[in-house]
Amino acid sequence: VVILLLFCRLVLFGYSLWFTVCCNSVTKIESYAGYSVSFSCLYQPQYQNNLKYICRGTRPSMCLQQALITSYNKKNGRFRLNDENMSTKFTTKISSLTQSDSGRYLCGIQRNSDLHLFYAFELKVKDRCCDTVTNIESYEGYSESINCPHENQYQNSLKYICRGNQPSTCLQDALITSNNRENGRFRLNDVKMSRIFTVTISSLTQSDSGHYLCGVQTNSDHDVFSAVELRVKGESSAKCLSENHKKEVCIFTAFCFSDSALYVPFTVPLVLLLLIGILVVVVYKWKHYKVKGIFYIHTHAESHPLKCACEKSITVFSAVCFQKMKPLWTQMHPRQKV
């Protein structure tokens, strides 16, 4: 009898250890604050009419009595339970997520034995998006394009962009969408075959600096997002050095050529001489003042326009033009001003 009692206690102890924490595998789910999330729990056909429920935590022994919702009571605040008997699964939906909803959940299925069937989920609710952020820099008065990649399955889905990093309110606060592709300074171009949509912001100001979210609408509980941080620098960030500091020299020679072949014999030798002269002066000044930097000489206005930061962009006209000597830029603008 004593041996039998010890054996029973050992079995019960092992049973209680197994029953304390669940489960061997955990399904991880991520969503954002303000969104909804759903997770489904499969069961075998013989359990179609059995009680289903969900609870928080990892203790199966306490799950039913602490159930957030059951198949007998399918609505409870932000929780909804839908038992799809034909597909042998039940789905629990939590709406208006908050970060406090993060944590472990157990799906329970009552069986005829004392041992119920469980599935474990771990929910992570983020208040901001995203883990990876693309950084872009530009300048006041310029235009900037934001490229938003997406998967091939979303070619025909609604695309949009908003300011900030709150996915739950992004669509309703959208600056522009693929259904309305022009809005003030914003333009949206959806190149479906390339799986990228581009948003262009013109006439940038420093107030345009900040976070942006590219959104793609999906059929699930939450859309797909990518994050961008735009930094717009003012004109003062590229001002020239004063006379009291190191002096640098910037020599501009703007060239334009007529389509007529009559100007070729005259302009080509002149241009070559001017380029040689500019190169000599630049090398001399660089050595004389020991200026750190890179000198760019271009005769094509559309590639890398040569400019001083305190002057307007150089434009090439249909003549051989000369500019007076100007102070050298301390920082080149990366894009041509519009």
Automatic annotation (TrEMBL):
Main localization, broad class? membrane
Any transmembrane segments, and where?
Answer: 262-284
Its localization reads:
Membrane
Gene Ontology cellular-component annotations:
plasma membrane
| UniProt keyword list | Membrane, Signal, Transmembrane, Transmembrane helix
Among its keywords, does the record have Transcription regulation?
A: no
Q: Which Pfam families match?
A: V-set
Q: Which Gene3D superfamilies match?
A: Immunoglobulins
Q: Any signal peptide, and if so, which residues?
A: 1-18
Q: Does the keyword Signal apply?
A: yes
Its protein name is Immunoglobulin domain-containing protein
Species source reads Pundamilia nyererei
